[in-house]
Amino acid sequence: MTAMFGRLGWAVADTWTITRRDLTHWVNQPAQIVIGLLFPVMIVLMFGYLFGGAVALPGGGDYREFLMPGMFAMTMLFGIETTFAAVAGDAAKGVTDRFRSMPMSGSAVVAGRSVADLLNSVLGLAVMVICGLAVGWRFHEGAGRALAAFGLLLLLRLAMLWVGIWLGLVVGRPEMLTAMQILVWPLAFVSNTFVPPETMPAWLAAVAEWNPLSATVAAVRDLFGNPGPAAASFAAEHAIALALAWPLVLIAVFAPLATRRYRDLNR
């Protein structure tokens, strides 16, 4: 028992060391953080003010209140690119190999990256909330339901970062980020983020409704009390359950894959 707690304490200490290393890297390169925070703000301004007037919500309501929950979730999704670039960059520079040569817990590197990226995502979400409040977004269902919505958003980010860690370790080449973006952007746009699925062709609407991103967006709209499409399908009616299930499934699959991939590098 003592040995088990000793190994656990060792793993936690190593994880925190890697977390601090990753956070220090961001502090030393603030421009990267600022650009990452400003990009979703630009998307909000573009869609909220340039295109929003052309979008009529089937049930009525303010488009920017409809948009902001989608933008919160999309920001969590796009964090996968940051995770992928950082992990692949460390692998390409040999940093990952140096970590593996040290007497440290085998899961600490990937766990430390996940903690650091999740903390960064909290900052990104806070910036988006401030942006939303500035453009007129509000939550209407009380602080408890709002906190539950933010919890679902961070759960989605946790799932996406494990996918990003695994892909970064598998690919190991930061120049493949463009290919990652080609995969991520359709996931963001074929969803209920910007328009209700019922405005799409039937086959595309079905794809959009079962998109994991759509589940989180629909769930947080409901929890915030923001306007959204009427629940006319199983996915829409059970959005909160799916917003929990999709990320948990992704974590259950990709967290072990990422840890195993790290341990098996160069074998």
Give the gist of this structure.
The protein has helices spanning 2-28, 30-51, 63-93, 95-100, 108-135, 143-171, 177-189, 202-209, 212-224, 234-237, 239-263. The chain has 267 residues and is mostly helical. It has one domain.
Description of the structure:
Belongs to the ABC-2 integral membrane protein family. The chain crosses the membrane at residues 30-51, 71-92, 122-140, 146-169, 176-195, 239-258. It holds the Pfam family ABC2_membrane. By secondary structure, the protein is mostly helical. It has helices at residues 2-28, 30-51, 63-93, 95-100, 108-135, 143-171, 177-189, 202-209, 212-224, 234-237, 239-263. The protein has one domain. The protein has eleven helices and no strands. The relative contact order is 0.15.
Following the backbone from N to C, one meets helices and strands in this order, namely HHHHHHHHHHH
Query: What's the shape?
Result: elongated
Task: Give Rg in angstroms.
Answer: 19 Å
Q: Please mark out the parts with pLDDT under 50 across 5 or more consecutive residues, or reply none.
A: 1-5
Largest sheet: none
Q: How many domain regions?
A: 1
| Beta strands, count | 0
Report how far apart the termini are: 31 Å
Mean pLDDT: 84
Indicate the multimeric state. Answer: single chain
